[in-house]
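Researcher: Sequence recovery benchmark, item below. Answer with residues only.
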């Protein structure tokens, strides 16, 4: 059960710590790549069990930087999924590469490793250099299989962890499986800043050093570029805020899991498809996503009952006007296209009380009962 909560007291306690962190930065007068960024990089790497974290300007830029330091550029092909935030594919194009999109596993909504291997075998004429598995909604992708396939086909693996801070497979957290990983600290994430921010994580010291160069014009010595780079730096204020919020991430993820468990108890046995977690995986529920062919009717009913809901994501990337030229896996993306008309994200965050979750569940059960009437 979700324990009784006092969201206001919790908010005020955290706000005081964040205010103190902000004042510390302002009093020190160092705003870019200072001690707060360095401390956060160490603390986040330690949280994940990784060797290196390099703070950058956003999750999109984290993916872009990871691709660039792997030597990915024009003419290269990078595989990923279409059921994701468009940023995943946008980052591939920022690097000058060509996206090749594969389908998803309809249970976890993450990359279908069977189609991945089939596509690689059928696409030997393409210059496929890398793969970006997306740990969507907080559920990990099958990284053990992915790393095995990547080794056979000589692919770099860059994990998209924008929605999976703290998720794990067994005892190993996501972000530590691939050659690199990209995290977003957009305010709505499980670990969110008060603005944009991101990080690249790796266990490879050479790749870490290259990301650190890339994020600031390729400078090793100020004003002297050792490599082509960009301006993509996590600022001191955001790093100080993230250091405070990182200490609460574990307990916040537990609260998300408790909310999800209460939804599971209320909605299991209904006609809805509710989230399922693969055995041995830890889901951190960035979103709690249900499915029904009557999704739009349910969403409207929830709105009339003053319950918010969202669709992540209503149009697959490959069907959006800007990305209709992306390469697709042989056989297309039927699961991706099917679920886009059925998925619905319910309210979930660490400060929901048991009564609030119960109210959402009861509204849905009321709709299910009405919808089943002849």
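Model:
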């Amino acid at each position: 059960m979700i324990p009784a909560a006092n969201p206001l007291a919790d908010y005020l306690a955290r706000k005081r710590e964040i205010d103190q962190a902000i004042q510390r930065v302002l009093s020190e007068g160092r705003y870019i790549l200072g001690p707060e960024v360095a401390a956060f990089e160490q603390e986040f790497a330690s949280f994940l069990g990784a060797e290196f974290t390099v703070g950058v300007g956003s999750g999109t830029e984290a993916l872009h930087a990871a691709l660039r330091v792997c030597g990915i550029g024009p003419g290269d092909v990078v595989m990923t999924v279409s059921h994701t935030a468009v940023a995943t594919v946008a980052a591939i194009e920022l690097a000058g590469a060509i996206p090749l999109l594969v389908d998803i596993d309809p249970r976890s909504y993450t990359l279908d490793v069977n189609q991945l291997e089939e596509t690689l075998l059928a696409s030997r004429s393409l210059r496929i250099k890398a793969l970006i598995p997306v740990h969507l909604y907080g559920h990990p992708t099958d990284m053990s299989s992915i790393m095995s396939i990547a080794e056979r086909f000589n692919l770099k693996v860059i994990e998209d962890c924008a929605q999976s801070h703290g998720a794990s497979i067994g005892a190993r957290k996501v972000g530590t499986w691939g050659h690199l990983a990209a995290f977003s600290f957009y305010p709505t994430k499980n670990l969110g800043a008060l603005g944009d921010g991101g990080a690249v994580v790796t266990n490879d010291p050479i790749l870490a050093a290259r990301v650190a160069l890339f994020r600031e014009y390729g400078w090793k010595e100020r004003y002297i570029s050792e490599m082509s780079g960009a301006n993509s730096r996590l600022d001191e204020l955001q790093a100080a805020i993230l250091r405070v919020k990182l200490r609460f991430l574990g307990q916040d993820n537990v609260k998300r899991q408790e909310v999800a468990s209460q939804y599971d108890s209320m909605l299991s046995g209904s006609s809805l498809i509710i989230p399922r977690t693969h055995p041995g995986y830890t889901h951190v529920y960035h979103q709690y996503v249900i499915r029904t062919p009557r999704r739009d009717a349910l969403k409207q009913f929830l709105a009339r009952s003053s319950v918010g809901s969202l669709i992540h994501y209503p149009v697959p990337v490959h069907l959006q006007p800007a990305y209709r030229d992306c390469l697709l896996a042989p056989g297309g993306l039927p699961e991706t296209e099917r679920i886009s008309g059925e998925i619905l994200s319910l309210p979930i965050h660490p400060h929901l009380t048991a009564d609030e979750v119960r109210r959402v569940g009861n509204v849905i059960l009321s709709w299910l009962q009405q919808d089943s009437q002849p």
